C-alpha cells in the first residue's frame, strides 16, 4: 500500500493513487498547515492564524479548531502509518516526511546540492521538479500564511530550475534547453540570471544574432520597468558573445576542466528562530539598495553582547536567501573571543576557504599574502555569501574580504567594528537584546501557547531575568521542556534565587545575568554530566569529537555520548556537526570557573593528560599510516583510559588530521604550558608529514619552534631532530640565517653523540639551505658529506637521495662528468627500490646536465620523464620547475612554440604557488621569444 500527501499543487492525500476525501477548503488548509510542520507540534493559536486570518474567526475559535481537527482525523483514519496526536501545546501530524511531496522535494534538492557529480545532481533536481503539479497549496482557503508559504515555495522552485539549467549547460545540453528557456524567459522577463542562461544557450546553439537581440530587448525592458542597466556579469557575457570568446564554447567543442566544487559551509540554521524582524528587514534593505543587485557587496558588522544572537541572525538570514547565492557559501568561526585559545590566524581561515573551493593542496602558495590573493581570485565574479563569524577586530576581518562586488559578506562580532565602516564602507546592524514581546514569542515557540498562557506572571519573571538574551532564553526553555510537568513558577523561583557575577563578562549590557541561568542549568544536570561539564572546558582547541571526549572523561564511548547528549539538551553544549561538540565561549568561561571550584588540580591535570595522550597516540598511528618509512619515535605509555582512535588506512588518517588539526595544534600549546616537554616534541613530530603534504608551512614552523623551546630538557637525539626540522621549516620560508643556525646546532648535537644517521640528515638539509642562498660550493660540500655518511649506514634509499644531491650540486658548479655519474647511480638505486619521487628528482637533474652539455634531445627526454612522474605523484610544485627548465632545450633546438607552451604552464603554476619572482623570470623569457618572433617576421 502506497501513501502520498501532496502540497505542491492541490492539497490532498492519496492511498494507492486514490485520493482520500478531505472535505471543504478550510479543512484542507488545516491539513496543509500540519503537513508543512510535519512531526512538529502546532499550537491552536498558530492553526487559527494560518488557516483563518485575515478572515473573520469563528465565534468560538478554540472549539472550532478542535472540531475541525476531529474531522481531519476521521478523514485520515483509513491512511496507515499516519496520526494526528494531541499535546498540551497543540496538535502534531505524525508522518514519514518521505510521504509528503514538499519534504521529499527539499530532500532531493539538498541531495543534489551536496553532491559533486553533475549527472547525479541533474537526476535529483529533475525528480524534485517532477513532484510539482501546479501552484502549491491550491484548493485551500487563502490566508496570509498560505500566500506567504506559496510565494516562498515558488521562489524555491524557480531557484532549483536555475541551478538545474546551469548544470545542464555545463553538460552541453543547450539544444534541449532552448524551448524551455524561451518559455521561462517569457514568464520571468526581468530575471537576469535566467536571461544569461538563455543567451548562452542561444549562442551555443549557433544563434549569436538572436542572443545579441535578446540582450538588447532585456536592456530596454530593465530601463523602462526598473530604471536600471543590466548587471556587470550580464554585460560581460554580452561582450563575450559579441566577440565570440572561445571559452563560451560548450563541452562538445572543447574539453571541460573538472567541475569546481560549490562550497556549502554554512552551519545548520537555528530551527526555532523568532523575531528580529527589523534587523532582517535592514539586511534585506542593504542588499536591495545596492546599485547592481547582481553585484552586491554587503558587509554587515553585527555587534553586540556574547549570546545575543548575532550568529543566529546571520545564519537565519543567509539560509532563507540561499537562492541569491548560487555559487555557494563560505563560513569560518574566527573565535575572536575564545577564552581557551587565540583567535583563528589568517592563514588558517584562508586555508580553510581554499580547501573548500577545491584547490589542490600542492598548488597552495606558502606566502600568506599569496594565499589571500588566490582566494580573492577564486571568488571573483561569483555570487556567494561569506560569513565571518565571531570576529575580534577589523584587522582580523579585512584580509578575508573579497575584492569582487558579486560577493555578500556577513561579519559578526561583539564589538562595533568601526574600521569596517571607515575603510570598507560596511553597513552596520547593531544588535541589542530582544524585546519583551520577542522573548515571550521565543518561549512560546519552545513551550507552547497553553503552557505560557497558564502562568503569565512566571513567564514575565523568566523573561525579565533573561534580560532579552537569546542564549539565556534558550537555556530556560530547554530546562522547562525537559520537565514539562514543572510549574514555570518553580523555574522562576530558582532563577531568582541565584545571583552571580558572570554579568561582568558582558560589559555591553549590565542587565544580562547569564551566570545565574548557567548556574542553575548545570545544577540540574546529573552528577556525571556535571563532572563532564567542568572537565570539557579543559579540552584544547575549538571543539571535540566523541572519541577525544571519551579520552578526556576517561569513560567508554557509549557512556560519553549519553553525557554529551544531556549537556546538549541543556543548551550547555552544541553538536555543530555529527559527533563533534563545542561550547559557546561564555558557557566555556563559566565551565572553566566551575571546574576550578569543583575539581582539584590533580584531577584536572589527569583529565588533560588523558586527552593529550589520546591526540598524541592517535596522531602517531595516523602518521605511520601516512608515511611508514619515517623513523619511528618511542612514545611514553599513555594515560589509563586514553585509548587512541583506530584508523583503517591512509585516507582515513589524512581525513582525521584534517578534522583534528586545530585541536592538535592547541594540544601542543597546552603541553607547552604545562611543561610536558616530551609531548611537545612528539606532537611536532607526528604533525610534520601532514604539514608537509598539505602545505601548512607556518604551522610546521610554529610546532618546531615549540619543540626547540623544550629541547634542552630532552634527550640529545630529540634536540638534534628538533633543531633540524626547525631549520628546514625556516629554510622553506627563506629565513636563511635562522635556518643555518638551527641546522648547524642539529649537526653539532649529532656529532657529539656520534649519531651517523642524524649527521647525514643534517648535512642533507644544510646542502638545501646553501643552495637556497646560491652558494653551490658549500652545498656540494654538505651533500658530499651526507653521501659518505649514508654509505656507512648501508641505507640504499638514503644513499640514492644523497647521490642525486651530489650530482645536482656538482652540475650547478659546471662539473658535469661528476654530476652525470652520480645521478646515473642514483637513478639505478631509485628504480631498484621503487622510489618514484626520488626517480623524478634524479631525472630532472639528468635533464639539466644534458642540456648544459649540449645533449638537448636527451635533456628533453629526461625532463619529460620527470614531469610524467611528478604529475603522477601530484607534485605540482616540482612540476613547475621542471617545465621551466624544459623550455631551454626546446629553445636551443629552435622549437620556440613548444618552449612557449611549457613556459606558459610553468608561469601559471608559479603564480598559483605564489612564487612571484620565478613567474616574472618566465614571463620575461616569453616576452623575449615574442620579440625574436617579431624580428624574424620583419
UniProtKB/TrEMBL annotation:
Disulfide bond recorded as keyword: no
SMART domains, alphabetized: BTAD (SM01043), TPR (SM00028), Trans_reg_C (SM00862)
GO MF annotation list: ADP binding; DNA binding
Residues of the Bacterial transcriptional activator domain: 100-242
Keyword set, alphabetical order: DNA-binding, TPR repeat, Transcription, Transcription regulation
Repeat region (TPR), residues: 840-873
PROSITE patterns, sorted: TPR
GO BP terms in the entry: phosphorelay signal transduction system; regulation of DNA-templated transcription
Annotated Gene3D superfamilies: P-loop containing nucleotide triphosphate hydrolases (3.40.50.300), Tetratricopeptide repeat domain (1.25.40.10), Winged helix-like DNA-binding domain superfamily/Winged helix DNA-binding domain (1.10.10.10)
CDD domains, alphabetized: BTAD
SUPFAM superfamilies in the record: C-terminal effector domain of the bipartite response regulators, P-loop containing nucleoside triphosphate hydrolases, TPR-like
Pro residues compositional bias, start-end: 258-270
InterPro entries, per the entry: AfsR-DnrI-RedD_regulator (IPR051677), BTAD (IPR005158), OmpR/PhoB-type_DNA-bd (IPR001867), P-loop_NTPase (IPR027417), Sig_transdc_resp-reg_C-effctor (IPR016032), TPR-like_helical_dom_sf (IPR011990), TPR_rpt (IPR019734), WH-like_DNA-bd_sf (IPR036388)
Protein family per UniProt: Belongs to the AfsR/DnrI/RedD regulatory family.
UniProt-recorded name of the protein: SARP family transcriptional regulator
Taxonomic placement: Bacteria, Bacillati, Actinomycetota, Actinomycetes, Pseudonocardiales
Amino acid at each position: 500500500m502506497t501513501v502520498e500527501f501532496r502540497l505542491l499543487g492541490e492539497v490532498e492525500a492519496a492511498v494507492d493513487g486514490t485520493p482520500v476525501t478531505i472535505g471543504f477548503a478550510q479543512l484542507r488548509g488545516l491539513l496543509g498547515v500540519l503537513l508543512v510542520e510535519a512531526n512538529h507540534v502546532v499550537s491552536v493559536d498558530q492553526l487559527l492564524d494560518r488557516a483563518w486570518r485575515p478572515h473573520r474567526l469563528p465565534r468560538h475559535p478554540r472549539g472550532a479548531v478542535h472540531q475541525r481537527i476531529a474531522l481531519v482525523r476521521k478523514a485520515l483514519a483509513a491512511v496507515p502509518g499516519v496520526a494526528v496526536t494531541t499535546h498540551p501545546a497543540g496538535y502534531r501530524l505524525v508522518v514519514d516526511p518521505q510521504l509528503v511531496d514538499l519534504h521529499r522535494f527539499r530532500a532531493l534538492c539538498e541531495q543534489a546540492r551536496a553532491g559533486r557529480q553533475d549527472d547525479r545532481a541533474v537526476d535529483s533536481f529533475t525528480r524534485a521538479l517532477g513532484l510539482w503539479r501546479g501552484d502549491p497549496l491550491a484548493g485551500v482557503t487563502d490566508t496570509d500564511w498560505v500566500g506567504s508559504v506559496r510565494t516562498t515555495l515558488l521562489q524555491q522552485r524557480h531557484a532549483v530550475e536555475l541551478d538545474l539549467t546551469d548544470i545542464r549547460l555545463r553538460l552541453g545540453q543547450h539544444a534541449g534547453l532552448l524551448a524551455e528557456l524561451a518559455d521561462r524567459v517569457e514568464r520571468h522577463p526581468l530575471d537576469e540570471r535566467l536571461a544569461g542562461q538563455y543567451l548562452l544557450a542561444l549562442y551555443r546553439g549557433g544563434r549569436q544574432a538572436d542572443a545579441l537581440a535578446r540582450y538588447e530587448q532585456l536592456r530596454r525592458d530593465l530601463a523602462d520597468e526598473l530604471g536600471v542597466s543590466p548587471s556587470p556579469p550580464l554585460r560581460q557575457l554580452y561582450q563575450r558573445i559579441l566577440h565570440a570568446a572561445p571559452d563560451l564554447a560548450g563541452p562538445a567543442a572543447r574539453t571541460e576542466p573538472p567541475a569546481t566544487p560549490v562550497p556549502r559551509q554554512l552551519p545548520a540554521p537555528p530551527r526555532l528562530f523568532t523575531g528580529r524582524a527589523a534587523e532582517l528587514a535592514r539586511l534585506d534593505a542593504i542588499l536591495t539598495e545596492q546599485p547592481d543587485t547582481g553585484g552586491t557587496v554587503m558587509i554587515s558588522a553585527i555587534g553586540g553582547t556574547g549570546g545575543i544572537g548575532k550568529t543566529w541572525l546571520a545564519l537565519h538570514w543567509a539560509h532563507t536567501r540561499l537562492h541569491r547565492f548560487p555559487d555557494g557559501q563560505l563560513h569560518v568561526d574566527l573565535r575572536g573571543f575564545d577564552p581557551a585559545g587565540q583567535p583563528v590566524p589568517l592563514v588558517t581561515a584562508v586555508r580553510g576557504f581554499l580547501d573548500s573551493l577545491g584547490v589542490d593542496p600542492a598548488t597552495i602558495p606558502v606566502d600568506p599574502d599569496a594565499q589571500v590573493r588566490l582566494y580573492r581570485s577564486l571568488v571573483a565574479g561569483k555570487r556567494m555569501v561569506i560569513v565571518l563569524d565571531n570576529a575580534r577586530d577589523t584587522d582580523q576581518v579585512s584580509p578575508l574580504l573579497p575584492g569582487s562586488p558579486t560577493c555578500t559578506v556577513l561579519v559578526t562580532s561583539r564589538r562595533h567594528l568601526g574600521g569596517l565602516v571607515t575603510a570598507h564602507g560596511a553597513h552596520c546592524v547593531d544588535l541589542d537584546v530582544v524585546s519583551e514581546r520577542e522573548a515571550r514569542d521565543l518561549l512560546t515557540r519552545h513551550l507552547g501557547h497553553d503552557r505560557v498562557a497558564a502562568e503569565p506572571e512566571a513567564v514575565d519573571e523568566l523573561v525579565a531575568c533573561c534580560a532579552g538574551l537569546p542564549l539565556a532564553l534558550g537555556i530556560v526553555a530547554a530546562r522547562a521542556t525537559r520537565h514539562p510537568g514543572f510549574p514555570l513558577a518553580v523555574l522562576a523561583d530558582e532563577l531568582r534565587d541565584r545571583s552571580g557575577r558572570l554579568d561582568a563578562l558582558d560589559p555591553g549590557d549590565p542587565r544580562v545575568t547569564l551566570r545565574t541561568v548557567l548556574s542553575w542549568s548545570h545544577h540540574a544536570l546529573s552528577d556525571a554530566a556535571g563532572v563532564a561539564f567542568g572537565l570539557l572546558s579543559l579540552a584544547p582547541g575549538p571543539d571535540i569529537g566523541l572519541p577525544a571526549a571519551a579520552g578526556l572523561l576517561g569513560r567508554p564511548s557509549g557512556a560519553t555520548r549519553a553525557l554529551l547528549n544531556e549537556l546538549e539538551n541543556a543548551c550547555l553544549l552544541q553538536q555543530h556537526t555529527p559527533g563533534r561538540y563545542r561550547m559557546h565561549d561564555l558557557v566555556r568561561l563559566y565551565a572553566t570557573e566551575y571546574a576550578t571550584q569543583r575539581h582539584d588540580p590533580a584531577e584536572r591535570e589527569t583529565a588533560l593528560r588523558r586527552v593529550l595522550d589520546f591526540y598524541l597516540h592517535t596522531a602517531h598511528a595516523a602518521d605511520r599510516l601516512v608515511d611508514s618509512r619515517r623513523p619511528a619515535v618511542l612514545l611514553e605509555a599513555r594515560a589509563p583510559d586514553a585509548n587512541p582512535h583506530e584508523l583503517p588506512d591512509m585516507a582515513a588518517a589524512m581525513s582525521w588530521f584534517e578534522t583534528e588539526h586545530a585541536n592538535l595544534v592547541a594540544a601542543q600549546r597546552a603541553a607547552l604550558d604545562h611543561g610536558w616537554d616530551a609531548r611537545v616534541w612528539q606532537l611536532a613530530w607526528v604533525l610534520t608529514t601532514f604539514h608537509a603534504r598539505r602545505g601548512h608551512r607556518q604551522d610546521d614552523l610554529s610546532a618546531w619552534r615549540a619543540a626547540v623551546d623544550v629541547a634542552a630538557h630532552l634527550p640529545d637525539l630529540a634536540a638534534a631532530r628538533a633543531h633540524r626540522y626547525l631549520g628546514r621549516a625556516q629554510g622553506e620560508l627563506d629565513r636563511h640565517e635562522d635556518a643555518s643556525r638551527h641546522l648547524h646546532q642539529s649537526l653539532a648535537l649529532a656529532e657529539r653523540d656520534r649519531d651517523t644517521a642524524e649527521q647525514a640528515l643534517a648535512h642533507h638539509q644544510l646542502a638545501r639551505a646553501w643552495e637556497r642562498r646560491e652558494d653551490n660550493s658549500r652545498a656540494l660540500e654538505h651533500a658530499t658529506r651526507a653521501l659518505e655518511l649514508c654509505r656507512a649506514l648501508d641505507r640504499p634509499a638514503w644513499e640514492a637521495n644523497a647521490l642525486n644531491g651530489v650530482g645536482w650540486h656538482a652540475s650547478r658548479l659546471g662539473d658535469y662528468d661528476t654530476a652525470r655519474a652520480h645521478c646515473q647511480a642514483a637513478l639505478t638505486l631509485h628504480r631498484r627500490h621503487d622510489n618514484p619521487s626520488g626517480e623524478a628528482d634524479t631525472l630532472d637533474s639528468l635533464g639539466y646536465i644534458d642540456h648544459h652539455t649540449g645533449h638537448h634531445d636527451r635533456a628533453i627526454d629526461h625532463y619529460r620523464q620527470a614531469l610524467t612522474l611528478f604529475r603522477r605523484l601530484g607534485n605540482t610544485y616540482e612540476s613547475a620547475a621542471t617545465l621551466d627548465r624544459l623550455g631551454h632545450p626546446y629553445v636551443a633546438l629552435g622549437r620556440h612554440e613548444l618552449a612557449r607552451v611549457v613556459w606558459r604552464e610553468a608561469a601559471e603554476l608559479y603564480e598559483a604557488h605564489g612564487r612571484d619572482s620565478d613567474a616574472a623570470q618566465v614571463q620575461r623569457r616569453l616576452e623575449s621569444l615574442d620579440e625574436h618572433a617579431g624580428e624574424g617576421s620583419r
